[in-house]
TrEMBL record:
Bias type Basic and acidic residues, positions: 198-208
InterPro entries tied to this protein: ATP_grasp_subdomain_1, TTL/TTLL_fam
GO biological process, one term: flagellated sperm motility
Keywords attached to this entry: ATP-binding, Ligase, Nucleotide-binding
PROSITE patterns given in the database record: TTL
Domain of life assignment: Eukaryota
Name of the protein: Tubulin--tyrosine ligase-like protein 9
GO terms for MF: ATP binding; tubulin binding; tubulin-glutamic acid ligase activity
Keyword Disulfide bond among UniProt keywords: no
GO cellular-component term (any): ciliary basal body
UniProt region (Disordered), positions on chain: 1-21, 179-208
Pfam families membership: TTL (PF03133)
Length: 461
């Protein structure tokens, strides 16, 4: 990306040579005071930069991006932690809009069977601009449960369930005084998102806040898979290094977040039953901080295998891989792919009683604050491995299929577990290179990887 160096532009990475190997240390900056800061400060050769100092690596929040990205000159090696218009995937209304458009495109180009692979999000309407379409759909299926979610808030804020049109009328009246016309105009593609300021005090799933509330009405999954009678969803981490070509890594670890109260559809007003967000659950009167409400994905996968057998579990996790890839492909052409950007997404997936996974939302800034020691260890390893893949130190060859807990899932096409280039013509024995919920022996893998890279370097010098 070349930008004119005039007085309105701030340059970064300029004081050191362009060649990555020439940098003795990596200057980092972040405003997030949580696990991330611990990881950055402990990384060998990385030095923290305060205030207006020059930096090579910035784990920024989305408000900085909105205000500064277009006025910042970045040298070749510089990296920041978001794509310019990440909200195409992480705002609930845009995510659905892009998925619907992508589904239509697939149907046109590859037929209905291929398009059906995008049927992993519940029927959704943007409010208030699709209100009349919603009412039409609502009347076709009286008595079912719907869920209303603000498009740009997180931690379960502003969400409610309803079954009667009257409830939505009351909501509509409540928003009537809030300049509804402003709600209906989405930001122009590839321009600044008109969202307002981001609340930097919140460390959990930061989102763009917008001046006027825009909601989505979504069909509520009434038959969630239950464990111990309780509802849960899954948090899975996907790291995107590039959109053109699409290059995405899937982390082996993640967790299931449980609600604290047994599931029932007879009390749709009880958020402790229906919302699994930790921010909501930890306010429950019988929440145990030490016990928490999370299972690691390995435990979840083993539990399912003992109940349903390994084949059913393999099929479920394969369907989840499909969600990650298709959702990224749906925004591939609208996200501004910039070589300075990477993004660690937090996917929220719900499983129903038929073992079908549903995409609830994608978070641009998944919570990096730990809720327990186990959570702290997961997030520390996740962030260390993210930095290994981003590779500011320029140690990798670019041909790696695994780095620590990350497996390369898509590299301008599906990545095979087998060595060498697979024959994709029949996709007969093709097995995707994903290991979600499998053993994460990252320490051994990293030791072997860096030892092998070092010996390669010695051999070539």
């Amino acid at each position: 990306m070349s930008r004119p160096k005039n007085q309105n532009y701030k340059g970064h990475g300029l004081s050191k040579g362009k060649e990555r190997e020439q940098r003795a240390s990596i200057r980092f900056k972040t405003t997030l005071m949580n696990t991330l800061m611990d990881v950055l400060r402990h990384r060998p050769g990385w030095v923290e930069v305060k205030d207006e100092g020059e930096w090579d690596f910035y784990w920024c929040d989305v408000s900085w991006l909105r205000e500064n990205f277009d006025h910042t000159y970045m040298d070749e090696h510089v990296r920041i932690s978001h794509f310019r218009n990440h909200y195409e995937l992480t705002r609930k209304n845009y995510m659905v809009k892009n998925l619907k458009r992508f589904r239509k495109q697939l149907e046109r180009e590859a037929g209905k069977l291929e398009a059906a692979k995008c049927d992993f999000f519940p029927k959704t309407f943007e409010m208030p601009c699709e209100y009349h379409l919603f009412v039409e759909e609502f009347r076709k299926n009286p008595g079912i449960t719907w869920i209303m979610k603000p498009v740009a808030r997180s931690q379960g804020k502003g969400i409610f369930l309803f079954r009667r049109l009257k409830d939505i009328m009351d909501w509509r009246k409540g928003t009537a005084g809030k300049k509804l016309t402003g709600l209906e105009a989405p930001p122009a593609r590839n321009t600044v998102n008109p969202s307002g300021s981001h609340d930097s005090r919140s460390s959990d799933d930061q989102k763009d806040e917008i001046p006027v509330e825009n909601y989505v009405a979504q069909r509520y999954i009434e038959n969630p898979y239950l464990i111990g009678g309780r509802k849960f969803d899954l948090r899975v981490y996907v790291l995107v290094m590039s959109y053109i070509p699409l290059r995405a890594w899937l982390y082996r670890d993640g967790f299931a977040r449980f609600s604290n109260t047994r599931f029932t559809l007879s009390s749709i007003d009880d958020q402790y039953v229906h919302l699994t967000n930790v921010a909501v659950q930890k306010t429950s009167p019988d929440y145990h901080p030490k016990k928490g409400c999370k299972w690691m994905l390995q435990r979840f996968r083993q539990y399912l295998a003992s109940k349903h057998g390994p084949e059913a579990v393999e099929a479920l996790f394969s369907d989840m891989d499909n969600i990650f890839v298709r959702s990224l492909q749906s925004v591939q052409k609208v996200i501004i792919s910039d070589k300075h950007c990477f993004e660690l997404y937090g996917y929220d997936i719900l499983i129903d009683q038929n073992l079908k996974p549903w995409l609830l939302e994608v978070n641009a800034s998944p919570s990096l604050t730990a809720s327990s020691q186990e959570d702290y260890e997961l997030k520390t390893c996740l962030l260390e491995d993210t930095l290994h893949v981003v590779d500011m130190e320029a140690r990798l060859t670019g041909r790696e299929k695994r780095v620590g807990g990350f497996d390369l899932m898509w590299n301008d096409g599906p990545v095979s577990r087998e060595e060498g280039t697979p024959d994709l013509s029949g996709m007969g024995n093709f097995v995707t290179n994903t290991h979600l919920g499998c053993i994460n022996d990252r320490s051994n893998q990293l030791r072997q990887l860096f030892r092998s890279l070092q010996s390669q370097k010695k051999a070539s010098s």
